[in-house]
Amino acid sequence: MEKKSVINLNKIRGLRAEHNETQKDIADILGIHISSYQSKEWGISEFKPSELKTLADRWGVDISDLFC
Questions:
Q1: This prediction's pTM
Q2: Integer Cα distance of 10 and 15 in angstroms
Q3: Residue 65: DSSP 8-state
Q4: Are 63 and 52 contacting, i.e. CB atoms less than 8 angstroms apart?
Q5: I want to staple 25 with a disulfide (CB 3.0 to 4.6 A). Which of 16, 21, 33, 53 is the partner?
Q6: What are the backbone angles phi and psi of residue 7, rounded to the nearest 5°?
Q7: Confidence band, pLDDT 50/70/90 cuts, at residue 1
Q8: Do the domain assignments include residue 35?
Q9: Could you tell me which residues come within 8 angstroms of residue 35 by beta carbon, excluding any fewer than 6 positions away?
Q10: How much of the chain, in percent, has pLDDT values that exceed 90?
Q11: What is the pLDDT of residue 45?
Q12: Number of domains the chain contains
């Protein structure tokens, strides 16, 4: 069975806070509604790979750092 990668939502929240960005700021950057971003950050829905790449690039981290 293939191991599924799990996104580290605490890391995403921490990086967002570390960069003094609000959920609305990130939603705007990703081109989505704030409620959609909140659902992703709370683990209700999943981030798209392109969204994770955008966040990693923005925060200057490797995309693998966003996974557990």
A1: 0.89
A2: 9
A3: G
A4: yes
A5: 21
A6: -75, 135
A7: low
A8: yes
A9: none
A10: 90
A11: 95
A12: 1
Whether the CB-CB separation of 40 and 31 falls below 8 Å is answered with: no
Say if 19 falls within a structural domain. yes
Residue 3 belongs to a domain = no
CATH number at residue 59: 1.10.260.40
Q: How far apart are CA 44 and CA 2, in angstroms?
A: 23
Cα(23)–Cα(1) distance, rounded to whole angstroms? 35
CA–CA gap between residue 66 and residue 61 (Å, rounded): 8
> Does any domain span residue 4?
no
pLDDT over threshold 90, residue 5: no
For 21, other C-beta atoms within 10 Å of its C-beta total 16
Domain range spanning residue 62? 9-66
> What confidence score (pLDDT) does residue 4 get?
59
